[in-house]
Every structure is written in structure tokens, then in C-alpha cells.
Specification:
437 residues; alpha/beta; eight-stranded mixed β-sheet; 15 helices
Length: 437
């Protein structure tokens, strides 16, 4: 049967496509499959006790549908990253759970524990060879497909087709598909302007990045600010879990050209990324850019093979022993492990490698209280994302605390020196009281 005939035979409505899901199934989803999620919500009475796994948290309409109270008993949503405010109860919905793991291990989690029955994924229209490409926010979808799961696609003509050697699927593998664009949602608006504190933090790091270095910037305004100040650099490389917004101009104007990067020289590498229509033309079938298998991109062993690797990631708090929290202060939750620990470890092992964990020195709470983000101990209930033994540098607007190979007392002194001046005396007092100074 020809590819077009196979396509027509498998095309159906969203409700028909997801009817393959049975009570008790494990489902893995990726991309922006809002239309399929709507069908899941509308037909929820047809199934119970379904576990829906994703690598990334859901946003907007998808979040509303999957975590709607009406879905309790029918579907439980399990993801690696959450977006709950510290002011909220950490688990405000009974059909929500989290997998705490580094992204480099996500594929093994799929193979050894999740073992999905069904995969839901967004995809580009089929090409002449019968292949669909899985877009930019596929995560570890292909691994889930390789487990023998039934594959259901939401084919969206607006999706960006990126150069990849792994994240595609053939029509012969597909169980069912529907053609559908997602409903338009309110855009988040223009990117937030970089503030004075972000600029100060970025300046400390940019001075330490040499021409020819390879960079990775993590999520968050402070780490993303670094890219805004790299325009005067030359011959940078890109090997990153995801591509932050500030890197797009550097890719387009040739500051990032990968001419000195030994792994896939001349090619920018990412595991996934988010973009908007204004950047589609740049990434669409661009041979100078490639989306690679995430377990390879994020592997500390892979990252460690790149000389002068620079990793910059945001964090929420640091204690005086150097333990770093990046996902959950106290019992709230604002994210997950993601790829931070992967790149911290990889950059530390790389020849000439550097890793920076960045944050503001203090924050003002909703009640108006100013609190230090450098503390004697992390608040009770906080999750340690990066252990003290892996941390190289912590950066605030007051400077860089170099912690690698430092003793406990040296770490405490370095961290107090970059704390908000208002809290330095109290931090020193507490450190002396408990023997850290």
C-alpha cells in the first residue's frame, strides 16, 4: 500500500484516534497535542485509572483539560517538572504526581518503568518518504515509540520541521492520526526586559567565557541574560539541552558557528527547544542545526568531551555548605531537576570546563519581607538539586563564589561575600555559631 493510502486509512477524528486508550493504560504524551487532550477530556467516561506521563509540564488549555477535577479517577498526570508556587500546597490536585530525575535518565525511565501502551504526539505533515517529524518539543518521544506502544499523532501543518537523526516516525508505525491545529491561546507577550541585577550577574560570567567556548544556558531570566551579552564573542559553540531565547540572535548572526567544537563540528546541537513562528524559517531544515537524542545530548560523558564547555543554570537558593536548590524551596515546587545536574557534572569534567549556578542574592516575598537566598541551611522541605560536591561556581549580582575544591569554611566565606550586604553579618554570626567559620 502506498504511503498516501496508508495515511488515509489511518486518518480519523480525534475522538476515534484516542479510543485506543483503555482503562489501566499507561500513556506517554509529548508536543502540543491539545486537540487530543480535548478528546481525552470529552470521552473520559470511557476509561478509568489511566496514567498519563510527560517529560514537560503542561501549559494553558492542555493543563486545564488534563488536571480538571472531572478527570480525577479517570486519569492521573505524572511529569518531571511542575510549576507550583511556593505559596500553594505542593499537591493541590489529587491526580497530579512527579517523577524526580535528571533528563539524561528519562529514556531509561521510559524503558524500565513507564513502558507505555500508547504514545500521543504532535507531528509535522508527512513527507514524500512517509515520515512525520516530531517538532521541537518532543522530549523523549521516540524512545516511548520504540517500546512497541500504539502511536497516535496529531498532525499540525504549523509545526516546525527540524533536522534530526532520531525524532521522526514512519506512517507504517502509526496506529491512528488526526489532522488538527491547536486552538489559539493568549500569547505570553514580549520577553521580560533584562533588569540591572540580571545584567550584573551576566557580566561576571561573560568575562570568563573565551572565544571558541561551547555554551549551554538553562531556563530562567538570570541565566538567559548571559546570552544577551555575548554578541562581541567569536566562534562560540552550542551544545545544550534546550535553546534559550537570547541565543537565537547569536545563531542567526554567526557568533555561534561551532567552528571549534569537536563534537559535530559546525553544527549546533540541542535535545529539544521551544520557538515561535518568527524563528521557523531559521530552524526549518537547517543543516547547521540538529536535534539529537536527549540521553546523548545531556549525558555528562558526552558533555565532558567538549573542551571549554560553559554551563549556566538558574537556582533558587544555596546554603553555606554549597548545597543548591533549583526546583523546590520549602514545600512549594517551581520545576524539576531537568538537565541542570547533567550539565553541571559534564562541564566540571570537561577540559577547561566551567559551570555557573546563578540567582539574585535576595528576594522580596509577597508579604513584602526581604529574605536572603543564601542561608545557613536550606528551608525545611527544600529539594537539593545539585549536591555541594558538584558545584563549581555560584553567582549573584555581588560576584562569583568559587566553591570547587574548597573546604567547608572556605565555601561559607565565599558565599557570604556574594550575599546581599543586608544579610552578611547575620550569616557570619550563624556560621560561627555552628562551626562553619
Amino acid at each position: 500500500m502506498r504511503f498516501t493510502e496508508l495515511y488515509q486509512a489511518k486518518k480519523c477524528s480525534p475522538e476515534e484516534a484516542i479510543s485506543v486508550i483503555q482503562s489501566g493504560d499507561r500513556v506517554y504524551a509529548s508536543g502540543d497535542t491539545v486537540v487530543l487532550f480535548q478528546a481525552l477530556y470529552d470521552t473520559r467516561e470511557n476509561f478509568r485509572d489511566v496514567d498519563l506521563y510527560t517529560q514537560f509540564r503542561l501549559n494553558g488549555k492542555a493543563d486545564e483539560l488534563i488536571l480538571h477535577p472531572d478527570m480525577v479517577g479517570h486519569l492521573t498526570f505524572i511529569t518531571t517538572t511542575l510549576a507550583l508556587s511556593s505559596a500553594q500546597n505542593p499537591w493541590p490536585r489529587e491526580n497530579l504526581d512527579q517523577l524526580p530525575l535528571s533528563f539524561s535518565w528519562m529514556e531509561r525511565m521510559i524503558e524500565e518503568r513507564i513502558k507505555p501502551d500508547v504514545v500521543l504526539s504532535s507531528a509535522t505533515p508527512m513527507d514524500d518518504d512517509g515520515f512525520f517529524f516530531l517538532g521541537t518539543r518532543h522530549g523523549t518521544t521516540r524512545t516511548a515509540m520504540d517500546m512497541g506502544a500504539k502511536i497516535v499523532l496529531q498532525v499540525n501543518e504549523d509545526m516546525c520541521k527540524v533536522n534530526t537523526d532520531y525524532y521522526r516516525v514512519h506512517i507504517s508505525e502509526v496506529y491512528a492520526l488526526c489532522e488538527a491545529k491547536n486552538p489559539e491561546e493568549r500569547m505570553a507577550g514580549e520577553p521580560r526586559e533584562i533588569g540591572e541585577k540580571e545584567a550584573q550577574v551576566a557580566a561576571y560570567i561573560v568575562d570568563r567565557i573565551t572565544d571558541g567556548a561551547t555554551i549551554q544556558l538553562g531556563a530562567g531570566g538570570v541565566s538567559n541574560a548571559v546570552g544577551k551579552f555575548l554578541g562581541g564573542h567569536k566562534n562560540l559553540g552550542l551544545h545544550a539541552e534546550t535553546i534559550m531565547e537570547s541565543l537565537y540572535p547569536l545563531l542567526q548572526n554567526g557568533v555561534i558557528n561551532n567552528s571549534r567544537k569537536p563534537l559535530l563540528r559546525g553544527i549546533s546541537v540541542a535535545g529539544f527547544f521551544g520557538t515561535n513562528a518568527s524563528n521557523f524559517k531559521f530552524f526549518h531544515n537547517n543543516p547547521d542545526f540538529m536535534v539529537k537524542r536527549l540521553s546523548w545530548v545531556n549525558s555528562p560523558l558526552t558533555v565532558s568531551q567538549i573542551p571549554n564547555m560553559v554551563s549556566v543554570n538558574a537556582c533558587l537558593g544555596v546554603d553555606l555548605r554549597g548545597q543548591v536548590c533549583s526546583e523546590s524551596l520549602a514545600m512549594g515546587n517551581t520545576g524539576g531537576v531537568g538537565g541542570q545536574l547533567d550539565f553541571v557534572e559534564g562541564a566540571r569534567r570537561a577540559p577547561g570546563g566551567q559551570s555557573f549556578l546563578v540567582m539574585h542574592s535576595s528576594v522580596t516575598t509577597r508579604s513584602g519581607e526581604k529574605v536572603s537566598k543564601i542561608t545557613l541551611t536550606l528551608p525545611a522541605g527544600s529539594v537539593v538539586t545539585t549536591p555541594a560536591s558538584e558545584v563549581m561556581n555560584v553567582v549573584t549580582e555581588y560576584g562569583i563564589a568559587e566553591l570547587y575544591r574548597k573546604s567547608a569554611r572556605e565555601r561559607a566565606r565565599s558565599l557570604i561575600a556574594i550575599a546581599d550586604p543586608e544579610f552578611r553579618d547575620s550569616l557570619a554570626f550563624d556560621a560561627k555559631k555552628y562551626g562553619l567559620l
